[in-house]
């Protein structure tokens, strides 16, 4: 990695082409396309959340380039579960073609329908459950119940004339799930007996030895933390983590506390989950946030978003004193989620900020308040031994996770040549049980910045980083059109410098000398003169301040 870019050949009849569009080499943007005989099926369509080096970006989408001109050939989008990294980009794809059918479980469809309502899109949907079979054009689908950190998750088996696929989505093998819904290993075993030509498996925890602890082990810890909290308790989690919210409701109820939900997405998702019966709300526990202020501090729990340090989420706003709830001495804050790679610094800043305000912060590092939703190495090995797939394509993870997953497959007996360490845009063709890499597409990140989608480039982000880290200098000079001599200026203004603008007085003669030299050489083009100013100023600032700010020179003829 990265692989050289080259176009795949024309797809042969009765051959299944698999292209991971997102989710390989990253935690998020999960999306894979399957094509056979001119028809396309998509599994998942998620977003990636920006990191610190992507200032101003709200979301990152998969690159839809391979399917943009094939929209009419798409028969449907299978959504394995309702987390943002699997459904968050659906509105942006449906803006290209609104009637692509969405296929998923009841809770998953309810979450995406609520999201699409905000985008004013009413989707076509097909609700499915574990054990159900559906025929969508040349794709015969079978859905398998899997256990994850959100209810109603599904794996999908895809049968075609080119071969058979099992795509796990996100899963783990919790043997004591809160909702009693196990990963259906009997179905996995039956599919393995029938023969799986290529297995696409969740890699997120492939480098973690052993087995992921049970969700049930968290309940008593939450109950104990809440019981010992002297004042208010604020729990931060993902807005779609129904199981964790259930445990918080139960723990609060056991300690005689009420619960107020904070954050638009949290309120929306939990309202849906409760209406559909996935969230069992104890009588009288939930209270509207507006009325929560009247409840004594030792009788309230706030359930909020912001566990990843997102700047606009509730928890970050509390730290910045930009929220109605003012965190203070004696308050307890529980971060009930794992750290998504890339978010560590933002989360630790939130933790430090809360502690400075006097809060007791409980997180995965100092208490068992979260377990992962993904299968660890021991669980993956079990699944490989049950399925005995011919080929393996690890998906959903950063590169180290994909490598770890591939190594587990090889340990279980899958030939190394049949495990594919791919990246976004790798093209794999499957025919008669034989899989091979036949192309590598050049796919990039698509940035959402406010209402702008796909217009922001990596060069724009580099400019933003320079502005944030190095500062900005504008230089305005008016020159005589006839002889190129300086009439007015240079006028220099800086932003992001501690020093007064007067420190640039030493630079002005150097700029004037450079312009005089250029004029003497017959240079009259204002762009060329501006470049000369930029070079001189850049060298001087670098030597003087050891900085490389953005320099914007403007040379005007008069």
TrEMBL record:
Entry protein name: Ribonuclease J
Protein's job: An RNase that has 5'-3' exonuclease and possibly endonuclease activity. Involved in maturation of rRNA and in some organisms also mRNA maturation and/or decay.
Organism (species): Leifsonia kafniensis
SUPFAM superfamilies noted in UniProt: Metallo-hydrolase/oxidoreductase (SSF56281)
Primary site of residence: cytoplasm
Residues of the Metallo-beta-lactamase domain: 28-222
CDD domains: RNaseJ_MBL-fold
HAMAP family according to UniProt: RNase_J_bact
SMART domains from the UniProt entry: Lactamase_B
EC code(s) of this entry: 3.1.-.-
Gene: rnj
Pfam families xref list: Lactamase_B, RMMBL, RNase_J_b_CASP, RNase_J_C
InterPro entries: Metallo-B-lactamas (IPR001279), RibonucZ/Hydroxyglut_hydro (IPR036866), RMMBL (IPR011108), RNase_J (IPR004613), RNase_J_2 (IPR042173), RNase_J_b_CASP (IPR055132), RNase_J_bac (IPR030854), RNase_J_C (IPR041636)
Residues given in the record as substrate binding sites: 370-374
Subunit annotation: Homodimer, may be a subunit of the RNA degradosome.
Enzyme class: hydrolase
Similarity remark: Belongs to the metallo-beta-lactamase superfamily. RNA-metabolizing metallo-beta-lactamase-like family. Bacterial RNase J subfamily.
Location in or out of the cell: Cytoplasm
UniProt key word Nuclease: yes
Record's keyword terms, sorted: Cytoplasm, Endonuclease, Exonuclease, Hydrolase, Metal-binding, Nuclease, RNA-binding, rRNA processing, Zinc
NCBIfam families assigned to the protein according to its UniProt record, in alphabetical order: MG423
């Amino acid at each position: 990695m990265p692989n050289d870019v080259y176009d795949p050949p024309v797809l042969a009849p009765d051959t299944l082409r698999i292209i991971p569009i997102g989710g390989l080499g990253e935690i998020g943007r999960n999306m894979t396309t399957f094509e056979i005989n001119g028809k396309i099926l998509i599994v998942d369509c998620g977003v990636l959340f920006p990191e610190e080096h992507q200032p101003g970006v709200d979301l990152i989408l998969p690159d839809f380039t391979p399917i943009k001109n094939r929209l009419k050939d798409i028969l449907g989008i299978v959504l394995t579960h309702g987390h943002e990294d699997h459904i968050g980009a659906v509105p942006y794809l449906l803006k290209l073609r609104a009637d692509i059918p969405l296929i998923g479980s009841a809770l998953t469809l309810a979450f995406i329908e609520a999201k699409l309502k905000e985008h004013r899109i009413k989707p076509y949907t097909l609700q499915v459950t574990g054990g159900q079979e559906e025929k969508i054009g040349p794709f015969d689908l079978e859905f398998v119940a899997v256990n994850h950190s959100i209810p109603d998750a599904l794996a999908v088996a895809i049968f075609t004339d080119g071969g058979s696929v099992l795509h796990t989505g996100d899963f783990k093998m919790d043997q004591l799930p809160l909702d009693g819904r196990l990963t259906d290993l009997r179905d996995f075993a039956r599919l393995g007996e029938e023969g799986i030509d290529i297995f696409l498996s969740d890699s997120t925890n492939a480098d973690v030895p052993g087995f992921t602890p049970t969700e049930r082990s968290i309940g008593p810890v939450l109950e104990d933390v809440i019981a010992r909290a002297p004042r208010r308790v604020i729990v931060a989690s993902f807005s779609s983590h129904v199981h964790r919210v259930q445990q918080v409701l139960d723990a609060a109820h056991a300690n005689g506390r009420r619960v107020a939900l904070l954050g638009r997405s949290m309120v929306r998702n939990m309202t849906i989950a409760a209406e559909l019966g996935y969230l069992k709300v104890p009588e009288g526990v939930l209270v509207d946030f507006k009325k929560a202020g009247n409840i004594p501090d030792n009788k309230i729990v706030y359930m909020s978003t912001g566990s990843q340090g997102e700047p606009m989420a509730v928890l970050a706003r509390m730290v910045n004193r930009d929220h109605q709830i003012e965190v203070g001495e004696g308050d307890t804050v529980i971060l009930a989620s794992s750290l998504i790679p890339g978010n560590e610094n933002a989360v630790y800043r939130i933790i430090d900020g809360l502690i400075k305000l006097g809060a007791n912060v409980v997180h995965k590092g100092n208490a068992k308040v979260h377990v992962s939703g993904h299968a660890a190495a021991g669980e993956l090995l079990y699944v490989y031994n049950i399925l005995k797939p011919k080929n393996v394509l690890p998906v959903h993870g950063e590169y180290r996770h994909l490598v770890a997953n591939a190594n587990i497959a090889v340990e279980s007996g899958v030939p190394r040549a049949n495990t594919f360490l791919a990246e976004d845009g790798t093209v794999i063709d499957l025919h008669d049980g034989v899989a091979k890499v036949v192309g590598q597409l050049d796919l990039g990140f698509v940035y959402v910045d406010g209402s702008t989608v796909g217009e922001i480039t990596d060069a724009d982000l580099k400019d933003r980083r320079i502005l944030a880290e190095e500062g900005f200098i504008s230089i305005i000079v008016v020159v005589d059109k006839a002889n190129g001599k300086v009439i007015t200026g240079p006028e220099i203004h800086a932003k992001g410098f501690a020093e007064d603008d007067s420190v640039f007085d030493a630079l002005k003669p150097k700029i004037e000398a450079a312009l005089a030299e250029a004029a003497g050489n017959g240079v009259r083009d204002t762009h060329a003169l501006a470049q000369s100013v930029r070079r001189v100023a850049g060298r001087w600032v670098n030597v003087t301040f050891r900085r490389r700010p953005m320099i914007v020179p403007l040379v005007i003829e008069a």
